[in-house]
Design brief:
Distance between the termini: 77 Å
Structural class: alpha+beta
Number of helices: 10
Shape: rod-shaped
Radius of gyration: 39 Å
Number of domains: 2
Largest sheet: 12 strands, mixed
Low-confidence stretches: 1-22
Number of strands: 27
Mean pLDDT: 77
């Protein structure tokens, strides 16, 4: 039995060698691709909403961390007969004032005040002074107007009231005498200092540029949308817009928008094009909520060739003893058309070249090649050596394998995109949400390095940057 198998295998090998020896060899001229140049294509920008929300509690926590201990000191008792030290006595609270249609920050600062007051005169070079010291507890209430300048929220704070826990007084000539007339004028000495301290602390705590830039860096890092097709989505910011910051309830809301280019690339993970040093903040009055996104789906000819080779796998063209199969496919650009190089084996061995213009059929959701035909040299060689292969019926069968529906690709693309629009978190405190209403294929553009399909997506995308972590 083993001997029989060996003889059978040997005979099959001989038949195969004879078959290969008698197959026609075709030597066609290769249409050289256009010179490679940097990939340049027409692109339409997209817009993504970037609402920044910051809780007042976050501002409060950061302000308390920045403003601690002794916050004011005046030791020049000689000039005004008073020496003052002011400490933050307890944590600061920051709330929304809700003053009618105007919303301001209300800051409540519990404080401890130490006052040294000088009583007496100086006559004939003799100092006739006595000193009294007071330790008082009170609460300062401040209100702040808010505006946005250069990535920071700035406040203009004004002291509204100072309430003492007990009325300041001292014993003078055996009597308990209120000293409000002494203390309250002293407030003016440290009032501007306290207001400035609050403004400086809030400004430092409200520098949200690092948070936004870090979030943008994560968003603009290409991420894989489909492992099956090795497709990657890359976002490249062009401009950042922002509206006036608004205080709503217990939250600061800053509507931002990003003008960007969105690309889908096939193959290995592409490099990011994000450069934080080029980000400029531009003020606008309104950010659109409904956005139209244009995505450039870029497929290099090398990657497209791999996919096309898979499409031809197992396909045989012809019949009887006149048939070929395609072993490999290569694509490149030539004079505004796409060259399709087929490496065939069978009754004819060698390379045959076709060319056509890729088009999109909206009804069938498929890519096809208009005016697909053998290039001139290939056609001449086939007519002389394998006219059956040059016939239109074989070309139509090959043409059928060069068509493929992208309906499932559009649906899969939409499904993949939705996974990144449902509370996707590229980093803590950053949330991506949105909806997709429709995906429309627009056009195909050929470059020297890739085939680019432009897709128009209707919907909305919001990237919420929450907090000051």
């Amino acid at each position: 039995m083993t001997k029989f198998i060996f003889i059978s295998s040997f005979l099959l090998l001989i038949l195969l060698l004879i078959s290969c020896a008698t197959a026609n060899k075709i030597a066609t001229l290769k249409p050289d691709p256009d010179d490679a140049v940097p990939l340049v294509y027409e692109s339409s920008p997209s817009y993504i909403n970037l609402p920044v929300t910051i809780k007042l509690k976050d501002i409060e926590n950061k302000t308390n961390a920045l403003l601690n201990g002794l916050i004011y000191e005046d030791n020049a008792i000689e000039s005004d007969a008073i020496e003052i030290k002011v400490w933050k006595e307890a944590p600061i609270t920051i709330n929304n004032a809700h003053l009618g249609s105007v919303e301001k920050l209300t800051t409540v600062l519990p404080l401890k005040v130490w006052i040294k007051y000088r009583i007496g005169t100086k006559k004939l070079g003799v100092e006739l002074y006595s000193y009294k010291e007071f330790n008082l507890n009170g609460v300062i209430t401040l209100q702040s107007e808010v505006n946005l300048t250069n990535w920071r929220l700035h406040t203009k704070t004004e002291l509204k009231s100072l309430d003492w826990k007990e009325s300041p007084s001292m014993v003078l000539m055996g009597k308990n005498v209120p000293i409000t007339y002494i203390i309250n004028p002293a407030i003016s000495l440290f009032r501007s200092k306290i207001e400035k301290k609050i403004d400086e602390s809030i400004e430092k705590s409200m520098d949200f540029k690092p948070n936004v830039l870090e979030a943008l860096e994560k968003i603009c890092t290409p991420f894989e949308m489909s492992q099956t097709y090795s497709s990657w989505l890359r976002i490249t910011p062009l401009e950042i817009y922002t509206t006036v910051a608004k205080l709503k309830s217990d939250t600061f809301v800053l509507d931002m928008g990003m003008k960007c280019n969105m690309e889908t690339l096939i193959g290995t993970k592409p490099n990011t094009k994000y450069d934080k040093n080029k980000i400029i903040l531009k003020p606008v009055t309104q950010i659109p909520q409904q956005i139209n996104t244009n995505i450039a789906a870029i497929s290099t000819y090398l990657e497209a060739s791999k996919i096309m080779t898979q499409n031809f796998k197992g396909q045989v063209f012809g019949n009887g003893n006149k048939k070929v199969s395609v072993q490999n496919v290569a694509l490149w650009h030539k004079n505004g058309k796409l060259v399709i190089a087929l490496d065939v084996v069978g009754s004819v061995n060698g390379m045959i070249y076709l060319s056509g213009i890729p088009q999109y059929n909206e009804k069938n959701k498929e890519i096809y090649f208009e005016h697909l035909d053998y290039v001139l040299d290939t056609k001449d060689k086939l007519i002389r050596t394998a006219s059956w292969l040059a016939q239109g019926i074989i070309l139509r069968k090959i043409d059928a394998n060069c068509r493929y529906s992208i309906q499932s690709n559009l649906e899969e693309g939409k499904k993949s995109m939705m996974t990144y629009l449902n509370n996707y978190t590229p980093m803590p405190g950053v949330f991506v949400n949105g909806k997709m209403e429709d995906i429309q294929f627009q056009k195909i553009q050929l470059t020297n390095q890739a085939l680019i399909a432009f897709i128009h997506v209707k919907g909305s995308v919001k990237v919420s940057i929450d907090g000051l972590k």
